[in-house]
Amino acid sequence: MSACPVSDAFPFPGSSYHGPAPHYARLRTEQPVVRVRTAGGVDAWLVTRYEDVRAALADPRLSRAETCRPGAPRIGGSMTTTPEMIISLDGAEHTRLRKLVVGAFTTRRVERMRPGVQKVADELLDDMADRGGPVDLVQRLTVPLPLTVIGELLGVPREDLRQFETHARAFATVDDRAGGAESLAGLAKLNEYIVGLIADKRAEPTGDMLSDLIAARDHDDRLSEQELVTFGFTLIGAGFDTTANQLANSVLALVAGHRDQWRALVEDPGRIPDAVEELLRHVNLFATDTSGFPRMAVEDLEIGGVRIAAGEPVLLSLASANRDPSVFDDPDRLDLSRGRNPHISFGHGIHYCLGKQLGRMEMEIALAGLVRRFPDLRLAVPESELPWHTGEINHTLTSLPVTWGA
């Protein structure tokens, strides 16, 4: 690597859903681009300032595909991917696959989905009300809402959703310290399931996105069979786990640590769209404080005045960038009335999240339903007793017991 001393071992201690590790504040000021020794034993460059992270996300000299090639260095805390996944591709191949589905996630088309999403949310909230508190919000709302929505978008039968959830969450909540065995097992189960689902939809198309992709494969030969299978489970897996975690962590932040902000939403639900943007910025999703998807330099470049040599891995801390005081006033404060909010929680550049509008809408509908139906929502157990998944990708609540009323 380029001549520069290695900083502390990465990931840094102290990261939580409340925010990135405290070490990032010093790095942004003193060493905004720094070498770190990762949990996988590989040295990498860590980028921490907003301006640098945003520019790097859009820089074609930083490759996702190179990190997935055979023999590429394994960086601890990075998401398990395969070379065929859209998040693993660069350039023309990425563009070709993205064009096949981008039309399904336009703002206009997502808005047409709003009544259906609202119906699913209302049914889940009705069930919560009928049961009475305490209930597990993860089990009753934050997982089934995005899971059902993405399942209906892609034509997954409702009776299969719970089975699919088990495999998809095992894949998404990889724990590198266990060798990734659970994640790989989930990936295998997802692959098996999607192969069967594709066979069913090839025999009897149902007008959903997966049926459209099959038609593209069979009629225009734009997808290989493996691409079709991989794209199917990538979209379904990515379509609910991130939203489920973000929603659960956001509700926890409001009802446990920021009751004043929760009460403000109860009094004025019209503030919820702005609140969602601030929660996306402030609530830290990533356990390593990075996106979980490293890049590899394919040619020499500079980031923040530091020379990165071709072949060196680069980690981009979205969580740190979202707390950069040069962009956000008082960045460590959760302020649901914050105006300008150019957070990069959905990324930037060619891998900018396709489902950003759908994720926003689901969060808006879920929060609006909760503040309207359960204005005195609160934790049913001390926050210190909440169970968290111990993997190295997301801060994932495995249960969120809440209650309301007397």
Structural notes for this entry:
The chain is built from 15 helices and eleven strands. The mean pLDDT is 86. It has 406 residues and is of the alpha+beta class. The strands form three sheets. A six-stranded mixed β-sheet has the order 1-2-3-9-6-4, covered by helices on one side. The N and C termini lie far apart (61 Å). Helix content is 47%, strand content 9%. The longest helix is centred in the middle third of the chain and has 33 residues, at 225-257. It has one domain: Cytochrome p450 (Orthogonal Bundle).
CATH topology: Cytochrome p450
The helical percent reads 40-55%
Tally of alpha and pi helices: 15
Write out the strand line-up for the largest beta sheet, numbering strands in chain order: 1-2-3-9-6-4
Q: Unreliable stretches, pLDDT < 50, 5 or more residues?
A: none
Please identify the top-level CATH class.
Mainly Alpha
Which CATH architecture is right?
Orthogonal Bundle
Strand percentage: 5-15%
- Chain-averaged pLDDT: 86
From the structure provided, what is the oligomeric state, counting identical versus distinct chains?
Answer: single chain
Shape: globular
Largest sheet: 6 strands, mixed
Radius of gyration: 21 Å
Could you say which structural class the secondary elements and strand pairing correspond to?
alpha+beta
**H/E element sequence:** EHEEHEHHHEHHHHHHHHEEEEHHEE
Per CATH, the superfamily is: Cytochrome P450
Distance between the ends: 61 Å
Number of strands: 11
Total domain modules: 1
